[in-house]
Amino acid sequence: MGHERADVVVMLRVTGGLDYGPARDAEDMHRLLTAAGVPAELLPPSSAAERWPGFAFSTPDGPVLYHAEAGVIDADHAMTAMRRVATANGAMFHYETPVTTPPAANSSSPAKVSTLAHRPGPLG
């Protein structure tokens, strides 16, 4: 390592992640993550509160899942990179051009698009 390229853009910022609360199944997520080889910790709310005092963890909400490899994707950089790769592989992008006929499933035919210019009506 040690070499950085000017054309490389960091798209994922690893921050670690916490999952908790009544809408989460922390135990099931822990099972799925660890089965996939992703490091994860399942903590009682009291231990999580000691580790992250800025959060209000509640015992009725169940355990807290911490996964150190979670992060945030920079959507703008990710979309730019995906468009660059797609274009390099023959994809074409037609912005603000309605699709009039989508391609059939498992077809190599491109979608048909309207070539008429959009003229905004009274509502925009």
Which keywords apply here?
about 120 residues; three-stranded antiparallel sheet; about 25% helix; about 15% strand
What does this structure look like?
The chain is of the alpha+beta class and 124 residues long. It has a domain at 17-69. It has helices at residues 26-35, 45-51, 75-88; strands at 12-14, 17-19, 41-43, 64-67, 71-73, 99-101, 112-113. Strands 2-4-3 form a three-stranded antiparallel β-sheet. The chain has a two-stranded antiparallel ribbon with strand order 1-5.
Q: Percent helix among the residues? A: 25-40%
The major sheet is characterized as: 3 strands, antiparallel
Taking all Cα atoms into account, the compactness measure Rg is 23 Å
What is the tally of beta strands?
Answer: 7
Cα end-to-end separation: 52 Å
Question: What does the oligomeric state look like here?
Answer: single chain
Give the SSE order as H and E letters. Answer: EEHEHEEHEE
In short:
The chain is α+β, with helices and mostly antiparallel strands and 124 residues long. The protein contains three helices and seven strands, in the order E-E-H-E-H-E-E-H-E-E. The mean pLDDT is 81.
